[in-house]
Design a protein that fits this description.
This protein is mainly alpha-helical. A two-stranded parallel ribbon has the order 1-2. About 65% of the residues lie in helices and about 5% in strands. The longest helix is centred in the C-terminal third of the chain and has 18 residues. It starts with a strand and ends with a helix.
Amino acid sequence: MVSISIGAEGLLCEYGNNILIADSPAAFAGCVLQLLRDRERGKQLADHAYRTLLTHYEAGSVKKKVLSLV
């Protein structure tokens, strides 16, 4: 997962764990190339991003959080 800072605002993400953030075109391209060259690193980052998605943004987990507020 590669994003610019504004695209990651409000997301529960941790740089280097489940996202790479790059704000210039050259830095963004560099992050993408890094992940293409190191497939294992890309897989690890994607796995962590997917777990974050399921834990915090999947419908079931969101429903539980909303219901806990009522």
